[in-house]
Amino acid sequence: MNRSGGNIEGGESSRGRDVFRSFLKHRGAVVGLLILLLFIVSAVGAPWLAPHDPYDISAERLLAPSADHFFGTDPLGRDVFSRIIYGGRVSLQVGLVSVGIAALTGTMLGLIAGFVEGPLDNVIMRAMDILLAFPGILLAIVVVAVLGPSLTNLMIAIGIASIPMYTRLVRGSTLAAKQEEYILAARAQGMSDVRLILRHILPNIASPIIVLSTLGVASAILSAAALSFLGLGPRPPTAEWGSMLAASRNYIRRAWWLVAFPGTSITLCVLAINMIGDGLRDALDPQLD
Amino acid sequence: MTTYVLRRLLSAVPVLIGVSILVFAMLHLAPGDPARLIAGEEAEAEVLEQWRERLGLNDPLPTQYWRFVSGAIRGDLGQSLRTNRAVVEEIGDRIGNTLRLAAVGMTLAILLGLGSGTVAAVFHRRAMDNVVMVGAMLGVSIPGFWFGLLLIFVFAVTLGWFPSSGASGLRHLVLPGIALGVRAAAILARMTRSSMLEVIRRDFVRTARAKGLNERTVIYRHVLKNSLIPVITIIGLQFGALLAGTIIIEQVFTWPGLGTLLLHSLNARDYPLVQGIVLYIAVGYIAVNLAVDLLYGYLDPRIRYD
Amino acid sequence: MYPHKTSLFIATVAIMLIAAMTAFGCAGPVGDEPAPEEEEETRRGGTIVIGYSEEPPTLDAHGTTAAATVSVLDRIGDPVLERDPETGDFIAHIAEEWDISEDGKTLTLWLRDDVTFHSGTELNAQTLKESWERILEPGHEVALGRMGPLGDLVVEDDYVLRIEMEESFAPLMNWVSWRSWAQPVDPDLVREYGDDYGRNPGSIGPYRFDEWLTGQEISLVRNEDYDWAPEFYDNRGPAYPDALRLRYIMEDATRVAALETGEIHITSLPSTEVERFIDDPDFEIFSYPRGGVSMHVLFNHEREPMDDLRVRQALSYAIDKSAIIDVAADGRAEEAHGPLPPTMWGYWDGVEDISYDHDLERAGALLDDAGWTLDEGESVRTRDGEPLEITLYLTSFDHWVLTAEMLQAQWRELGVEVIIENYEWGTVLEYLADGRHHTALMGYSTSNDPDWLYRVFHSSQAGGAGINRHHIRNDELDNLVERQRYTMDPDERLQYAGEAQRFAVEQAVQAPIYILTEYVAVNRKVEDFAIDYRGNWLLHDMWLNE
User: What are the tens digits of pLDDT across the range B48-64?
Assistant: First the structure.
């Protein structure tokens, strides 16, 4: 992940325009962006867009999709369409918050490790090795199973599990950036460490972090759905796609809509974010490994 | 080379110690009392106490940890609290199933991934390329457990072609193998394609083409061979991810592997068993990563280990 | 009817079975005429596959009371006394005769002399004694807990064993007929395998343990020597199938799929699948009320505001049991009214008249009265500015979650905010012992005696010492459940148990909800499968018709 560039000096805005233009040329990315916008709009506007209260229990149980209930109703007579719309809020929240936790903590640790080096670096990287020594999903399962299932614990668990990715990336980039001549020069001129990090190092490693975070949101949503499916998701009656799937397994033949729509929603949402990530990757052209 | 391997192995030791402390601490500091689960929900305090005493749960945590570590060094991971069998034995009963499933998933992923990736690269920017790329994009986006459920109800229940559960023959491996392998296949397809496209652009390929070699020879003899190096790394990394994927896919197909055992023992707060399984998975994971590194160096002699 | 000296105890049993019979119709065995010889031959052979959701932790009869273990032990072992599948009477089996003393302290058993263990060793008074004494060894507390105040086991003769209890112990006969931990364990296998006996069990039943593929299945093969089937079976010799395979498939959907594809012949159905199978000509469906104590809401009497009778009553009135049953059990359950199941001897049917029927208005009035009022435009009641917010603890079993979601919605209608706290089983039990909950969902799979009331209501059992998860400490209730426990007169016992049940309902100590109905689907290729009135599977006449 050696970055060759000191290309950030000057032309910040023109580069931004370039990136945007090449992103727009990426057809898949644009489609992805449109789909994601749809999910975001429906999540934000859920209270106005949802035709029914997602928590409203009624005797109209297990109704097939109809004009009144676009996606049918669940065993408690709740409107599946409305629950999917509200479920989007949870999924996007999990994706953003857990990636936020991971990216912030990971970047911070990576910067410290790469910048300070020495024993502190060693301690941080050994801790990361420990986290990397078992699969992220396993770590998340153990954390949630132990802390007890809830939305917060879910986000924390998924976040923690993906910290090392960011730490490694940022540390590597920082180490490389430190060798660049202009940084050596800036240091020689007495620029403070914090300023150096903010002005020169962070912008230099922003692209890979952005791409990694975007793809990270997609995989966080997938992990969250999987954990919810295992019964480690948010507390009932929260509308969440993964737990909706888990709860509907017993009805798969009687009520296909209970399985079809939440699964499709997860896939679409993740697909959209992945396509955006791909577009960003091509546009920003960071050399991720 | 030998020193490199030795050093890598040695550096795994502190990592494993860290892993064991982490898992031990998480399990023991959390609520949930294995004695209560073993003695039954109707058990009285007195019976519970006898169980705690016998299971050593009343000892101070460092004592319990030391008992675990000193046993582990001797290859004894203790006994399952729930079944009273040796943890090593419990894991031994299941690990073969998980490895077999992972092997089938990986084989499918490699065949499908390399095949479709090659096709996409050869037909770059044509319909086939698009089909493969869209398929691959779907493949990395679809939740494996949902895909597994769909497979069960199409191929097991509706069509009746394959059994939906059980682990007794090759036929039982098909559906979970596909559900498990689809993600790795998609990633491999993308990797193979981009790696091949990169090689195609290189000079020696142009030279080969200029020499008038037919396209098939160029692709097989030169391009495929040279693009395999990064692909193999991905295969290694995906094998690790696939092992993790078994935890969830095993649930869907009730596959009697380490994943189902892990979830079961987590719920039962069967500490020694959870610790044992996590340790096994960590060791496997570290070993796979080491193997990938070594293989990489073997395939690409420019890389030196010092 | 009874060939031996009658006693208080037998009277107890008689009352019990009458109660059981009136409460439920019976699903007795399908009594075919005894098969002629050639027919007998055609019935032999084949392997019947039974699907279960839960794998046993061990097959050691003394190591666990897990239902999954019992379902295997029931195939490989036989109890010393049997119970008539239609009436529940004790009937001779391995013990050809028995005698129970007036004071209920001594039970003498006269054993058959032709019964052998799977290892070939003879079953006699000595080997049976060894078998039961094993329960006293450390590690077997689970079984010991059910055994009561055992004094001594005395071998009177080769085939005569006397059980002496230190105190009168009402459930003694019941104990001897128990289908798991009281069955004889093979002494040779115990000696050979020691701690590993649980993976290599043996007994005297119609099937021998063959192999255990962990996480997949347990296979059993026919015991050719078996010649002592109980009298209510037509087949008195060895079982018809060559083998039984017990397959463990946790996932309901997967297990049902396996039933449909013919991979398994017999399995219990999740209630959501019953409708689909009930008219399917390929399967026969059996049903019976699930044993144990019904699903109920525990109120924690030590936490505000649950210490207020009006609040507990209001919450009870606000529960619409039939709506919950529709959702959680797909309509396939019975409403519950009191702390004991109607199938249990000692059940007082008066609870049905005084239980709380759904009445939201009354519930609201009670809360108003208690000071919890609903302000205009608000959805949650408050008292002195404090919102009426309570927790509901549970573990994430499928129908429990549905039940909790329904309760939450129904109580919200009353203006009570409910926070669902779901944890895995072990954690929930610990939290309940600590008394963290306002309310909790609970149900128990075992219990067969009104002494249950003592265990869940007596103050000595509160605070983690026992299973009084209501944390109720009430002198009147203590007094009633104690009297029930120490009297030997069944009439008096019934009276105290009844009064305790009345108290529990009147004081809304808990809120009973429903008793699930169990459904078992049997592939039509399997003939003569039967179930007794308590839900025990009777499999000795069963054969595979292919």
Answer: 787 788 778 888 888 88
Residues of B in contact with C465 (CB under 8 A): 44-45
Neighboring chain C residues of A55 at a CB cutoff of 8 Å: 409
Provide the pLDDT for residue B198.
82
Nearest to C146 by CA among C446, C399, C463, C420: C446
The CATH architecture that domain A80-288 belongs to is: Orthogonal Bundle (1.10)
Interface contact C429, partner A, CB < 8 A: no
CA C378 to chain centre: 44
Query: Is residue A231 within 8 angstroms of chain C, CB to CB?
Result: yes
**How confident is the model over A42-58, as a mean pLDDT?**
91
Q: Flag the least confident range among A190-194, B228-232, B293-297.
A: B293-297
**Domains in chain B: ranges and CATH:** 97-254+286-299 (1.10.3720.10)
pLDDT top residue among C205 and B164: C205
Domain boundaries, chain C: 6-265+525-544, 293-517
The sign of the CA dihedral B106, B109, B112, B115 is negative
Say if the Cβ atoms of C253 and A145 lie within 8 Å: no
Cα maximum dimension of chain B: 87
- For domain C6-265+525-544, give the CATH number: 3.40.190.10
Q: What is the DSSP letter of C335?
A: E
Non-local (6+) Cβ contacts of C241 within 8 A are C44, C45, C46, C47, C48, C222, C542, C543, C544
**How would residue B202 be classed by pLDDT, with cut points 50, 70 and 90?**
confident
pLDDT of residue B214: 77
Residues 6-45 of B with CB under 8 A from A: 11, 14-16, 18-19, 22-23, 26-27, 30-32
CB spacing of B141 vs A129 below 8 angstroms: no
Tell the CATH topology of C293-517: Dipeptide-binding Protein; domain 3 (3.10.105)
Closest to C383 measured CA to CA, from C439, C310, C463, C296: C310
- Substitution target in A147, A250, A259 with the highest count of C β-carbons within 10 Å is A250
* Spans of chain C, pLDDT less than 50: 1-32
Dump strand ranges (E) for B81-237.
none
Residue C215: its chain B contacts at CB < 8 A? 93-94, 97, 167, 256-257, 260-261
Distance from CA of C397 to the nearest CA of A (A): 9
Q: B72: number of CA atoms within 13 Å, CB side?
A: 22
Interchain proximity A135–B278, CB inside 8 Å: no
**C253 vs chain A: nearest CA distance in angstroms?**
6
Nearest residue on chain B to A129, alpha-carbon basis = B15
Residue for token pair 């059910």: C146
CA C364 from centroid of its chain's CA atoms: 36
Segment C270-329, tens digit of pLDDT: 888 888 898 899 999 999 888 778 899 999 999 989 999 999 999 999 999 999 999 988
Residue in B with minimal Cα distance to A276: B137
For tokens 């660049």, what's the residue? Answer: A180
Query: What sections of chain A are H helices per DSSP?
Result: 12-25, 27-44, 46-49, 80-116, 118-132, 136-147, 151-161, 163-178, 181-188, 193-196, 202-229, 241-248, 256-284
Buried b (16+ CB within 10 A) or exposed e, B225-241: ebbbebbbbbbbbbbbb
pLDDT at A288 over 60: no
The DSSP output letter for C134 is: G
CB C112 within 8 A of CB C101: no
CB spacing of A236 vs C405 below 8 angstroms: yes
ipTM for the whole complex? 0.83
B86 touches chain A (CB under 8 A): no
Domain boundaries, chain A: 80-288
What number is the average pLDDT over the span B158-171?
72
Count other Cβ atoms within 10 Å, centred on residue C450: 25
